[in-house]
Amino acid sequence: xxxxxxxxxLAAPGLRRARVLAGIAAVDLADDARVSYQMLAKLEQxxxxxxxxxxxxxxxxxxxxxxxxxxxxxxxxxx
Length: 79
Known about the structure:
Elements: H1 2-5, E1 9-11, H2 15-22, H3 26-33, H4 37-45, H5 52-61, H6 66-71, E2 76-78
Antiparallel strand pairs: 1-2
């Protein structure tokens, strides 16, 4: 999967659901993942796509791997 990440951005269709199920406030997830609250909100709304690095940081802040996040539908690939 790593090679396909280089040319991809990741949509985040399941990000809000995963965050809510994890019991994490949006502001806390943004802080833990080192992204702005505004960026996180745009990802959750589907108006922005995450870079692989951003998606990894968000997955890590959710205590899962990026691979798991993709398998669970939190992120999906888009070229």
